[in-house]
């Protein structure tokens, strides 16, 4: 650690603190996560989920874990430095994003997820706070909850922040997979258009209520497995007819609405994969199809752009206007300091009362501001703030409703469970990726 000069503490949470630092030799600015737990062997360190996943994922739209350092039984993660997160970028906006910017952002998120899924992992905590931005570049971050696709279900630990949680997770399915990531992407895409969350549920039951109020209620024909999951919990879906997303998000193009509708389907088997989403007409505006994954892998290996020279493919570009990092920074008000970053659950007291009779089997006895569960080891600072985090708030419009001017209200950030590890012995070491 003597190779780094600590310049600022960015946050402190349940599982550790996050520091801004400079490499004394190269002058490179980095973010360092210092774990509170002691680690007595390298074997313990290498078993952490974010280490196991990030060391295998080298892609320009996935946050780079540069180094892992164990010194005097303390563990440090050295990450590339990013200016802000997507939530903070939305919070600072004074006007809506143009669709070209939304296309840019979602393209990069799907590129990172497609690469991740192809290499055997799914994220499980996709949300705006976990999308880090620097200029016009977007990177997927916080892999503390990541699972290997080939790992054997059932999965019993709770995942994802509630507002972006897929219906099968809300109904406590133990056999979910990568489609939970693409459902969350649909939520993020809608939020980019409106600057407020699409489904801001105050509890698990209210979350399902919010989803049904817009997407309509599932049936045995549209999602038989979900009906069975609900019945096993003595839960009945509220009855709604679908509300057109084009009514709720009038600024969205027909292609954008079609993509969001497909991502937000109740049945996970009907949602497009991340790689399939990249081929949707929404991304084909004035461009050819994106490169196939085989091309992406070879191109991305060197950390270079999106496709080879001379190929006319859609790729993130500088569209002008207010950049993501504008007015931000790696501190209070920025993505990696108080009020932003990745990790952390959420809590929100909804101002839309939940319909009577909606609590059965859905954990409605929990306080409505209990917060989300999906934070992992990254509980503070760069990877989630310990303090209050303003967020797009207010009740979601139900059937026929619309969105007005965005208003922000507090969203409490809280960490959640990393698994404890034991061990013995002492040592010092460094592992680069």
UniProtKB/TrEMBL annotation:
The protein's annotated catalytic reaction(s) are: L-threonyl-[protein] + ATP = O-phospho-L-threonyl-[protein] + ADP + H(+); L-seryl-[protein] + ATP = O-phospho-L-seryl-[protein] + ADP + H(+)
Enzyme Commission number(s) of this protein: 2.7.11.1
Per the record, the major location class is other
Highest taxon listed in the record's lineage: Eukaryota
Which spans does this entry mark as compositional bias, Low complexity? Answer: 364-380, 388-398
InterPro entries in the cross-refs: Kinase-like_dom_sf, MAPK, Prot_kinase_dom, Protein_kinase_ATP_BS, Ser/Thr_kinase_AS
Write out the ranges of the annotated region (Disordered). 361-433
The UniProt keyword set, sorted, is: ATP-binding, Cell projection, Cytoplasm, Cytoskeleton, Kinase, Magnesium, Metal-binding, Nucleotide-binding, Nucleus, Phosphoprotein, Serine/threonine-protein kinase, Transferase
Q: Which cofactor does it need?
A: Mg(2+)
Specify the Protein kinase domain's residue ranges.
4-283
Q: Name one GO molecular function term.
A: metal ion binding
Q: Where in the cell is it found?
A: Cell projection, Cilium; Cytoplasm, Cytoskeleton; Nucleus
Top-level enzyme category: transferase
Binding positions for ATP?
34
Family annotation (Pfam families): Pkinase
Q: Which GO terms describe its cellular component?
A: cilium; cytoskeleton; nucleus
Q: Per the record, where are the segments of Gly residues compositional bias?
A: 412-433
Q: Which family does it belong to?
A: Belongs to the protein kinase superfamily. CMGC Ser/Thr protein kinase family. CDC2/CDKX subfamily.
Annotated protein name in UniProt: non-specific serine/threonine protein kinase
């Amino acid at each position: 650690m003597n190779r780094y000069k600590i310049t600022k503490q960015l946050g402190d949470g349940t599982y550790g603190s996050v520091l801004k630092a400079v490499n004394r030799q190269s002058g490179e600015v980095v973010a360092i996560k210092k774990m509170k737990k002691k680690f007595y062997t390298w074997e313990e360190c290498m078993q952490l989920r974010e280490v196991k996943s990030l060391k295998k994922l080298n892609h320009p739209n996935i946050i780079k874990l540069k180094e892992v350092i164990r010194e005097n039984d303390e563990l440090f993660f050295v990450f590339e430095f990013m200016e802000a997160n997507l939530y903070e970028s939305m919070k600072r906006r004074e006007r809506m994003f143009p669709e070209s910017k939304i296309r840019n952002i979602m393209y990069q998120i799907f590129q990172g997820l497609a690469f991740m899924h192809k290499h055997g992992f799914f994220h499980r905590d996709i949300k705006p706070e976990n999308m880090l931005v620097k200029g016009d570049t977007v990177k997927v971050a916080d892999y503390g909850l990541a699972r290997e696709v080939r790992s054997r279900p059932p999965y019993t630990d709770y995942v994802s922040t509630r507002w972006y949680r897929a219906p099968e997770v809300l109904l406590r399915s133990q056999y979910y997979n990568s489609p939970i990531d693409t459902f969350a992407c649909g939520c993020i895409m809608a939020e980019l258009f409106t600057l407020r969350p699409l489904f801001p549920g105050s509890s698990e039951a209210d979350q399902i209520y919010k989803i049904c109020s817009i997407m309509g209620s599932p049936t045995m024909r549209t999602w038989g497995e979900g009906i069975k999951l609900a019945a096993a919990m003595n839960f009945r879906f509220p009855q709604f007819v679908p509300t057109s997303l084009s009514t709720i998000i009038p600024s969205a193009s027909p292609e954008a609405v079609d993509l969001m509708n497909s991502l937000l389907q109740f049945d996970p088997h009907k949602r497009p994969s991340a790689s399939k989403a990249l081929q949707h007409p929404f991304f084909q505006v004035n461009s050819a199809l994106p490169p196939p994954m085989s091309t992406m892998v070879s191109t991305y290996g060197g950390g270079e752009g999106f496709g080879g020279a001379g190929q006319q493919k859609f790729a993130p570009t500088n569209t002008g206007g207010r950049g993501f990092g504008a007015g931000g920074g790696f501190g209070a008000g920025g993505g990696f300091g108080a009020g932003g970053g990745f990790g952390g659950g959420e809590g929100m007291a909804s101002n839309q009362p939940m319909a009577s009779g909606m609590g059965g089997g859905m954990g409605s006895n929990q306080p409505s501001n209990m917060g989300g569960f999906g934070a992992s080891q990254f509980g503070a600072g760069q990877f989630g703030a310990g303090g209050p985090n303003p967020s797009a708030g207010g009740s979601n419009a139900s059937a026929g409703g619309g969105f007005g001017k965005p208003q922000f209200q507090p969203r409490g950030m809280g960490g959640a469970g990393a698994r404890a590890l034991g061990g013995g012995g002492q040592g010092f070491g460094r592992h680069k990726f």
